[in-house]
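Render this sequence as a predicted structure.
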Amino acid sequence: MNQTTNRQVICDTLMKAAKEDRDIVVVCSDSRGSASLAPFAEQYPKQFVEMGIAEQNLVSVSAGLASCGKKVFAASPASFLSTRSYEQVKVDVAYSKTNVTLIGISGGVSYGALGMTHHSCQDIAAMASLPDMRVYLPSDRFQTRKLIESLIEDEKPAYVRVSRSATEDVYKENMDFKLDQANVIKKGTDAVIISCGELVPYAVKAANELENEGYRVGVIDMYCLKPMDERTVIEAAGKVDLIVTAEEHSPYGGLGSMVAQIVSANSPKKVVNLALPDGHIIAGTNHEIFRHYGLDEQGMKKAVRNGLSQRLER
């Protein structure tokens, strides 16, 4: 079982790049420990800015540094970064098109037992609604590294959400990665599961187990929520009878909503959206929460079976 978290991979990737590029700057909101960025601060103190618990200042200072030619990576818990500093993200980063990559750590229900104040279940909808803001939810350590390497080289705003815990490996170290292009992990003819972030390993397990039951189920890793790879969605929809989306997010404005909009306009098929509820979420570990709300492989298999059984009944 992989023990390397995506946040640790972000630190390692930035440290490697900062050795040769002094324009790389990390800005943090009293969360260097939670973000696994303490090694970066120790190794490159002149390229690290500690803002304290002041997310609005974190974003504005990051935008200011970017306007001076710096490549800024601003890290803070996703629950606070996407809400407390939303106005600054809107104006100073998205509207101004500054070279700031926002790193939302401990996204979704990663903080588990700390409850709804620390859950970030609306961040995809919030960030994706901002013009010129890209939204990424990488699944494993290898994809995270490739994504951060790509973002170091470009100059457009981005929001990256990662989990707190280690995620099972989906890819290999030499994976083929293309920015803003979804990865088709498995092709299917009965159904396809489209997922992102920490739920992708569950989708792969579900599809593999369903194959043993005679179902041919594809899996698409839609790590790029915005811009979404519409072509891949449309192509998949044209080959299956059922689309299941699975996301660690509110049912409104996230992956499921985006996929349904694309499918309804281009290749109408039944879309079932597995998401967190529009209400208070139970306390527990992220895995316990996923299981409770049917977001693990068992929940995904049930959604596929139910959806395809309705097809047979017709």
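Summary. The longest strand covers residues 71-77. The longest helix spans residues 297-313.
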